Amino acid sequence: MIEPVPATHSGDEGLEQDCKGMSDEPAVVQGLVCASFNQDSTSLAIGTKDGYRLFSLASVDKLNCIHEGGESPDVYIVERLFSSSLVVVVSHSMPRRMNIYHFKKGTEICNYSYSSDILAVKLNRQRLVVCLEESIYIHNIKDMKLLKSLLNTPANRTGLCALSVNHSNSYLAYPGSTSIGEIVVFDTNSLSNMIVIPAHDSPLAAMSFNIQGTMLASASEKGTVIRVFSVPDGLRLFEFRRGMKRYVSISSLSFSADGQFLSASSNTETVHIFKLDHHSTSVEEDSSTWSSYVGKVFSAASTYLPAQVSDMMHQDRAFATVRLNMFGLKNVCTLSIIQKLPRLLVASSDGFLYIYNVDPQEGGECVLVNKHRLFNSEEEQPPPEEEPMGGGQTYAATLAMGGGQTYAATLATGGGQTYAATLATPACVEHPASAGLTGYSEDGGAKKGEVIPEHEFAAGPVRLDDEQEFPPVSSQSN
């Protein structure tokens, strides 16, 4: 979560496609409190001193503000459920109360109050999870019935937890210790513990599931090593070294839709992208090449070295990197496909969203294609020209030769397809799921909130996963 900053602006101007009201100076952030991407990285939500804002991420050239909510000021948690109109909001004015809104209709669905401050809220199409410092509450998202209370969990002052986007593998991960990096994986469908993973020697700082819910990435407070484990058996699959010279604070981890890449951002100027690729060599290469011979020597030597040195020899480095023009600011990142190309998105506490191209074949330094003010979504500047690759052809042109595929289609591949293969296949049409909401109930909650009688559910179910609500919908003024 992005740290609060002093507010220097208030008031609501008119909303059409753009959210107005920010100065030209990027270093002066006007009330930005938090930022989060939705489950499939098609939308960005930010909390502000005046409320919250939701943005469409359908275009590189334009950042459309699709809604601005002022129901609660000083919002420090805002989470949107995929591309639906359901949004969860928690404000500093009432930090123990969670409000759930249908922002398209401008109505409150329900609210819940808890025994201490709410530190995090996670949701998928099946579950809504509320994390407090020493307890976690798991709700059924279709009727908000409280299914499970995990009480007396280890002190979790930052509210660190992760919920799988895949509702079939609806796993919850949270710290199992305050002194070491132990991860508890809980199945929110069967409501039972799955496994405890001894991930790091130091306390945890970040966690994230891949979209399929089959892998879990983690980083400790030291921030030097990032590990990826299989779920639910907890086997270590990958280990990446972010750096050795200094400890950093990892602020976010994010898998690509196909599970082939993992991004990590921190309070430094560098964002790392790691490639999840098991190295394999052929028999001919094994016996004939100098590199394979050297590899064998190192592999054999590592068996005689101390465990820490041996681990370092087997750790992979970043496949691609991004150099930000800032240091010490918190940010969140995600890997997405926008307009048929793989992108890295970085939402920073300097009040900007940065969009980079990612070369899935060569990696290397990512190219900044645009940046947008989060308080003024007008075009920041025209995208710079792509740097040519081998043969004098641009990266964009190379990918364009094979056609492209929508982000929704990428999710439907089930994770067995690489970015390159995804971009080389013909485009297909998004087919949203058709689950409906039967209605919300205050029964069984942590504490009954205000009952909302005669809600719109009486007229028919609200489709929480109705992708037709995206692109932008009209905003409601309060």
Describe the structure.
It is a single chain. The chain is mainly beta. 9% of the residues lie in helices and 36% in strands. The strands form 7 sheets. Strands 21-22-23-24-28 form a 5-stranded mixed β-sheet, with no helix packed on it. Strands 1-2-3-4 form a 4-stranded antiparallel β-sheet, with no helix packed on it. A hairpin with a 5-residue loop joins strand 17 (204-209) and strand 18.
Helix content: under 10%
Q: What is the CA-based Rg, rounded?
A: 22 Å
Largest sheet: 5 strands, mixed
- The strands making up the biggest β-sheet line up spatially as 21-22-23-24-28
What is the mean predicted local confidence, pLDDT? 75
- Silhouette: globular
Number of helices: 6
Strand content: 35-45%
Structural class comes to mainly beta
* pLDDT < 50 stretches: 3-26, 280-292, 294-299, 307-314, 377-445, 448-478
Distance between the termini: 27 Å
- Strand elements, count: 29
Assembly state: single chain
Question: Which terms would index this structure?
Answer:
disordered N terminus, disordered C terminus, 36% strand, five-stranded mixed β-sheet, 6 helices, globular, mainly beta, 29 strands, 478 residues
